Amino acid sequence: MMRTALVTAVAGAVVAFLLGLLTFGVQATVHPHDVPLAVVAPAPIADRVAQADSAEVQLRVVGSAEAAALLRDKEVYGVLEIAPGQATIRLNPAVNPSGTQVAQQVLTGVAQGAGVPVKVEAPAVSAAERTAPLAASALLWVGGMVAGLLFVVLKGRRLRWLSALTAAVLVTGSTVGLLAWWGVTFDATALAFLLAVAVSFALLQAGLFRHLGIRAMGILGLLYLMAPAVAGQVPELLNPAYRAVLWSWTPFRFSTEGLRTLMYDGSIGTEWWVFGGIALVGVVLLAAKKAQTDRADGVVDVGVDQADGLPRAERQHTA
What we know:
It contains 13 helices and five strands. By secondary structure, the protein is α/β, with parallel strands linked by helices. The chain starts with a helix and ends with a helix.
């Protein structure tokens, strides 16, 4: 009894430490690193701006046309244009709000250092629009996960793929409806992307549940807890360790940034391949032969062989 109490207590402490490390630790260690910004300014001011570069920001002094292209392509998080007696900060709503917030703060400081008044030009973005990309990604993941878990609990055995696809369609519909209620709507391309994300999530989850049973929640639940904390940040704000270990591969960042880009008439390419690959992995897991662990608790059901009345495992042993 003492040993059990000690083991369970240690397990709880370890889990709490890991969750803190992988979730709250991301937010607690946020600090700018080489945040890319562009500045358009006359030569004397441009020289002073270039000297203001630091480890936190990466200031690029460019022409007006190049600055507009960099902002459109999301290669910089903000542009400061300095003219005689006036400075203008331009922001792109398709850029992660965390990045634009840092950009506005830094560029405002640069303009004030140049001794000119500053104004901000950026399309109005509602709180719902800022929330929608990450919220949609999380809801699509949770919907597929709950459907897969219930399939295991209710001892479903056949048509697991049909359950996953149906769940993906219904969860996409409920998510779109909820966001529409918040005032956020999508065009046909964004809707197709949402459905692709939902299908890939549901197929992957169904494949893991098929092979691991209810134990798959240990993987899927952890991914849900840690991924949104990473996907909600831009890489230049993350601690380099979190950036390399978590941000570099989490599918939540591809779905979040992909949807945000599509919401503002942008185009995406890599994201389609990412979720096509995830869907393919799910299909492979569903089609692959699995160990005989159909019970929800993961215990192998050896059964009884009808030929001689012996359990199949015992028959193999005696043979």
